[in-house]
Fold:
Amino acid sequence: MLRSMFSAISGLRAHQTKMDVTGNNIANVNTVGFKGSQTVFQDTLSQVIRAGGAPAADRGGTNPAQVGLGVKVAAITTNWTQGATQSTGRSTDFMIEGDGFFVTRGTGGEQLFTRAGSFDFDGAGKLVTPDGSILQGWMADENGVVNPNGPIGDLSVPYGQIVAPSASTSGVIDGNLPSDAPIGAPLQTGITMFDSQGVEQKIFYNLTRTAANTWDVTIEHATQGVLQTVTGVTFDDAGNLLNPAAPGLLPSFNPNTVVPAGRFPSWNNAVQIDISGLTQYGGSNTLGAPTQDGYALGSLQSFQLGADGTIMGVYSNELRQPIGRLALASFNNPGGLEKAGNSSFRVGVNSGVAQVGTAGVGGRGSLMSGALEMSNVDLAEEFTGLIVAQRGFQANSRVITSSDEILQDLVNLKR
Structure:
């Protein structure tokens, strides 16, 4: 009788723990990035009333008679399945699609890990969690180059950051030149280039047909005259560029040294034009000048997050240049992480070491901007578990009541 009472007491404790875990899951049903937990029960040692016997020639074997001594909580496991996507539209809200954790630097420099991607800026321009932990990653150098093999550090988005102008060094002419274009009639397209001070330079490309498959290319400044003339640009009978041969580059020229020299003191560098995209087919004129590599003075206006974690800065001069890259961490056993509060985890003795790297490689998921991962708690499942825990607790309390009544009957035998 005492065995049944103590077994029931262990059942009360175990089901109370299940209630605690279920209650915590329900409490965090709207917590960003929360992962629900489940309670796993396990029976305890059993008392052997009669040992089992092996079969013999003159008798059969017997099984042991064992009375269990109760239940215990074997484990409280974490459900790491993906939560639903909640679109927020905030550029500083990030979501991990797949495995991995954001890396943050907490109080005292402790490295923490979280699935909650709701970040914001502090007064220094750093990306921080609601509790002030700083998001970690790699910052780009002045040329926009990110080294993901280096040590991670604090990530910041320096709004208003000035990017110095850069002189144009290359351009592109592409499109179709009509095979029936009249000889001597130029086709024109243009583009804006920049000198080293970021001053706009209006450039026109004039292509004039001089023979059946032959064209001249003239590069002309809007106010300062001709900068370069290239003759003998030819196409084969199929309409494909023949000369200059691959890679289809015109000879480079220096705007400041073109006769008469000294017209562009702040644009004193080689410029080369790529015409490999030109064709001469029958049809309409689609001549264009889609790109050049110079830009004016600009300041950071906004940013975008790529699926690989690259933070792409968008500048007022239309330049797009990386300003940093988020770091993600993965673990051999994420269930071994220790909860540190504030939706964060720290490395546990059974989690393995943090494998920090970029998104999309090494088993780490990809990133999405403007969205958050919702809690993966299933209310229907939790309410069912709540009923099971309640009934289990109730049944165990009934065992104690019944055991007490039997003990009372035993005491009354004396009367």
